[in-house]
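Annex B. Sample input.
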Amino acid sequence: MTCPLISVILPIYNGEDYLSDAIDSILNQSVKNFELILINDGSSDGSLNIAQTYKEQDPRVVLISQKNIGLVATLNKGLSLAKGQFIARMDQDDISLEHRFQEQVKLMSEGYDLCGCHFHLITESGKLSSSRVVSIDPDFQSIILTRSVPFAHGSVMIRKSFLLENNLKYAEEVCSSAEDYQLWVKCFESGAKIGNVDEYLFLYRDFDLSLSKLNAKNNLKDATTISRKFRMKNLTRIESDLQLRLKDNATLNTFEQEQAAYFIFNTLFKRRFFKTKYYLRFIKLDVKIIAFFRFLKCSYGYW
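Annex B, continued. Sample output.
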């Protein structure tokens, strides 16, 4: 049997309310050459029955059911089972738009190792609440990673060979509550080319009972640790990327402005200096935090 182009990893844990919408959005992709790996991690609701129905209806569906071992171990199991050239993530309560895989594979063919896309946030009932534009610039990802992730976890596509060559997987012990952030940092430090499709291809369901919200405290703690270590280890590279991107008055979208501003803010207070070349560029940006920079300049003479 020919190996699929894409392996989709979809972990399931008590997700019966939205699982059918998530699976349907994958099975209805314009790209048809994929396997959908459903891993039921000890659900106590009707999730397994839903997954079994899809398994019976579509030969592309691979179903694994196991005792509960947790999200990170389940994701790593999915990575080990994946047969495709590319690995796509999907969450049980989100929706992938029809051309997601088509556009991501197209971008990956340009030499990218990881990519996501812009995404819409939807409510528990499926109504649009807001939209998020991410950075499409591979040279800006080091700045993004100082305090955030480059894309929504469920929207990512990864080149499998890159993970294998660098022996990378999700962290099961250290900072496991921010497992995706930790992996993207490891990928970056291993030389990954990271970017995003310049289209909205994903719907992220954002509600109070989502796993990310329920685990927010631990996630923030782990993410803060990852962020601090990443800045310390890669500061020279980050500053170089930022200087390169700001050269010739490059245009930054709102998300990029926010991330760059926070990096500068941290540089100012952590290292007790602020480079004039950054300031002269950033005073032109329409970001509220820049007003605070101006206040510091006038009041304390940092520049």
